[in-house]
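My current task is to audit a protein record that another person submitted. I have pasted the whole thing underneath without changing anything:
***
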Amino acid sequence: MLRLPSLEARFPASVEEAVSLKVERGGDSAYVAGGTDLYPNMKRRQQTPYRVIDVRGIADLNRLDVGKLGALTIGAGVTLRRLIRDLQVRTSWPVLAEAAATISTPILQNMGTVGGNLLLDTRCNYYDQSYEWRKAIDFCMKKDGAICWVAPSSPRCWAVQSSDLVPVMVALGASVTLAGPDGQRTIPIATLYQNDGIDYLTKRPDELLVSIEVPALAPARASYQKLRRRGSFDFPVLGVAAWLDLDGGGVVRDARIVLGAVGSHPIVSEDARVALLGRPLDEDAMDRAARAAAKPAKPLDNTDFTIGWRKDMVPVFVRRALAAAAGR
């Protein structure tokens, strides 16, 4: 049985108190809400903070409302189940509810949070094993070692970004608010991620994710398509989010295609966007965009399925996402 290491739990009542507790303990501490990612990682000794700062009691992290300008504000502590069931979300941002519903199982959706999924640790076949398993083959560079077992000659870690909500939020043009010792800052969510399996976030270690703001979706449309081995529970091996703005005649005025789980950060395909702009969303346009989006996807031996087949599935799922976003 995997057991948690000894820890100290603190329960701040405000964002400021949470940040203060984090600064006080530094790298030997971690924020936690649902704990569905952090606690299993601690059991496998992938993360070993002594102090866990439970932020579930902070009111600012539990907002879920629509502002005067029509943007949706989601507190980082809002559970996945609440997001899935919220009537405003299901009506005006259905892609968010649909993507959240693909995450894990209903039991874990009751605990897991939106913020936790957006900050999900990158994953890898060699990293996401027990401490004893990793020790037996020698540790990898992501934790305790000096080599990437996916690409042994590589100077960097290739663990993959495996969140379902990240590509959707990037496609929707969301922004995030972070709180640190110097106050709060708001940045586009696309800039929160960087292409490195270890340093995969631009968020500073002492910063707390407070909220996510999602612009009004209508009249644009969006879809999320997920590839995984089983129909539930599994992390994505590929996730594709498509956002489309069509004019009255069905011509593409703007588009965003975002790939998840095929790199250490979400991949925005500008070539796919260019292939769609100013064209009717017909079969030829979708095929062109699907082929363009597949080019930057470079699956490696770090998740389920064979590398070549995963690469082949990228244009298939891009096309499905475009068709679904168009209501076909």
